[in-house]
Amino acid sequence: MYYKRLEPYFIHLETVDSTNNYAANLLKETKPVNGTTVLTKRQTSGRGQRGNSWQAGAGLNLTFSVIVYPDIAVKQVFYLNMVVSLAVAKALDASIGGISIKWPNDIYAGDTKIAGILIENQFRGERIASAILGIGINVNQVQFENNLQAVSLKSLTGIDFSLDDVFQNCYNQLDFYLNLLMEQHFQLLSKQYHTRLLGINRQLKFQDDTGDFEGVIQGVDESGKLKILRNDGVRKYDLKEVRFLF
Amino acid sequence: MSMDIKEIQNLIKFVSKAGVNEVSIEQGDFKITIKTECGGTGSFEPMMVQQAPVAVQPVMHQVVAAQPQVAAAPKEASPAVSGAEGNYITIKSPMIGTFYRRPSADKDPFVNVGDSISAGTVLCIVEAMKLFNEIESEVSGRIVKVLVDDTSPIEYDQPLFLVDPS
Predict the structure, then answer these.
(1) Which one of A123, A131, A142, B140 is separated from A149 by 20 to 30 angstroms, measured CA to CA?
(2) Residue A182: its pLDDT value, please?
């Protein structure tokens, strides 16, 4: 396989606290090549969004972190969310239909989460020197603790999937979308992201600090804020300022 | 094109002697504006601004807050004008987001007051849109003050740390 951007250097671990942590230590102590990937069968304290842990059954799901050196400006940082979301969504297309992106970077199959993304960037001045792209995909897990709202490729299809195949698809797509970013195809990335955006252009219910309201998601702006058309005009929301009620 | 700190200090001396209030110099991607508050004497608040070039050189975001040493001789009985923060470098936020002093809730802060830091030391995380952005220092020195509480929302360019570079 020929890659445009990534050098496929894969580190397989039986078990690790979190692949992102392991990758962060690699970055501090060595000079990992662009594309170095840490994979594990079992993550003991995987992290979702700060404080939320990501549940991965041993050997059932795909958990990996890719180290890249994007060298983009701080104001373009949201494109990393687009790149990784699109890569995972596109990779899952190969196995299942109805994959969308829930703003800003959750991957949904139908109306349920199937994959999570956690991106950690290292800034140097006003540029992004390096980034750790953490990806967790529910592949063969069929039971989820605590009635967690989640699905997997297997729970939706009844078929066992090869973790290697799903990973390879993801890695290939990541190379493709990173290349678009490096070639500065910002509009193309944004257009594709919006095509996948869950709930876009539909009248839906939301909640903000003033209460429940109806509106239409129009898209995200360059900084990643969500634009919702309401009765009183378009408002832009930061992550914690709005909840989806659908 | 860039300037080292010596050149900037010389420039500040020059501006102070020239008795003007504000001088802007722009060469290619590099831009510096020096403002004086008291018409050429007293304290100075040079502001460094560099436009982000495309893959040229790292932009110097950490603004040199003040360089009062280079002031021309003040008039007799003039009080110290620089204040306690006069020699410190202010490290500012490169983006809007949430300020985290710790790598995770159960860990120690990246840096505390009194800690020595050098270029590359991680100071904090700014989270924006589920992106966790580690902010590294571009200067060496000692942390004098942490200006924002852990987990507070912060604005672009908001001062985060005071660093004593000496």
Answers:
(1) A131
(2) 96
What pLDDT band is residue A48 in, cutting at 50, 70 and 90?
low
Chain B CB contacts of A221 below 8 Å:
none
Q: Can you tell me the mean pLDDT for A3-24?
A: 95
Q: A46: closest CA among A61, A31, A26?
A: A61
Name the helix (H) or strand (E) containing A39: strand A37-43
What is the pLDDT at residue B9? 61
Q: For residue A123, list chain B residues with Cβ-Cβ distance below 8 A.
A: 94, 133-136
- Give Cα A83 distance to the centre of its chain: 8
- State whether B84 and B157 are in the same domain: yes
pLDDT of residue B35: 57
User: By three-state DSSP, how is residue B15 classified?
Assistant: helix
Residue B91: give its domain's CATH number: 2.40.50.100
Residue range A203-244 in CATH 3.30.70.330: no
Two structure tokens written together for A171 = 């890695």
Is B25 part of a structural domain of the chain?
yes
Distance to chain B for A59, nearest Cα, Å: 26
% pLDDT > 70, chain A: 94
Average pLDDT value over all residues in chain A: 92
Task: Outline which parts of chain A fall under CATH 3.30.930.10.
Answer: 10-196
Stretch (H or E) spanning A10 = strand A10-16
Query: Over 90: is that where the pLDDT of B54 sits?
Result: no
Look up the domain containing B92 and give its range: 79-164
Looking at residue A138, the DSSP 8-state letter turns out to be -
Judge contact between B124 and B107, C-beta under 8 A.
no
Q: Give, for A35, the enclosing helix (H) or strand (E).
A: none
Q: State yes or no: pLDDT of B138 exceeds 50.
A: yes
Q: What is the pLDDT of residue B4?
A: 61
Half-sphere exposure of B33 (CA within 13 A, CB side): 8
For residue A84, what is the nearest residue in chain B, using CA coordinates? B131
Q: Chain B residue closest to A24 (CA)?
A: B134
Please give the CATH number for the structural domain made up of A10-196: 3.30.930.10
Beta carbons of B61 and A126 less than 8 Å apart:
yes
CA distance B73 to chain A (A): 35
B31 touches chain A (CB under 8 A): no
CB contact under 8 A, A223 and B61: no
pLDDT over 80 at B99, yes or no:
yes
